[in-house]
Specification:
The protein has one domain. The chain has 5 helices and no strands. α2 packs antiparallel against α3, α3 packs antiparallel against α4 and α4 runs antiparallel to α5.
Amino acid sequence: MIDKIKHYVNKLIFLIEKKTKLSRKLILYVAIGGTGVLLDLMIYSVLANIIFVSDGDVGPIISNTISSSTATVYTFCLNVLFNFKVRDKLFMRFLSFFLVGLVGLAVSNTIIWIFVSNLNWGKNIVKFMTLFVVLVVQYNLNKHISFRSK
């Protein structure tokens, strides 16, 4: 069953790669990142709208820190297993991936602080907006730092 799923996923990636001229690694990075984004948004929604709702301006920042960190660990594991497939120096790769995640976290927390705390935009819309900026920043940093080949 798993082999059949892998076959169809590879076929789909090949078709996307052929039609869009995007690299296989970028396609997989975006797909894995997409599932990470869903996890991030679900955790953020629960934390920001239920758990930390009464914490004012700091609630969205705490929620974003927890949800982004969780999604970073999740996407690292999937990228190691299915995308970049590098197994050497795993701890150092995780450390660099997490540090890249912290750069993305700093960017998203800054955007949230500016738009939610200072401009009074909705915390859920702003969180969603940050995802696009962070995707571009983190893909480029991870491609050239965390998962570079020797």
